[in-house]
Known about the structure:
Number of strands: 0
Helix content: over 70%
Number of helices: 3
Shape: rod-shaped
Oligomer: single chain
Radius of gyration: 47 Å
Strand content: under 5%
Order of helices and strands: HHH
Largest sheet: none
Amino acid sequence: MAPAGLASLAAQTALQSAGAASLAGIGLVIAKTMRLTKTQTVALCLLASATPIAYEWSALSQGRAEQRTLQARLEHTEQTLLQFDQSRRDAEERPARADRSLELLRAESAPQRALLLPPPTGQSRLDTKTG
């Protein structure tokens, strides 16, 4: 096993060389950028600014597509709700319509029932017709 001081020295040396290499890389990029012509600089700036603009444009398009999808789903849900509401109203009105129909049938059938039922005690059928 290596002594602790040797490991520490190796780590420090590695960190210093990595720092120097990264600074050299940054310096190289800056030096190359400084040598660009104005036209090349404009092109580089346009390219650098076009990337986030293209991303935002794509995100906006996706958002609009999702909005259209959700709007269509909402309209379908609203239509379904209206149909259910109409069905509920129809179901609520059915008993009242049935009651009215039953009353009409009873009123229409009352004269026929009177002819079929035996007269009350002490009266003849002729008395019920005149009475």
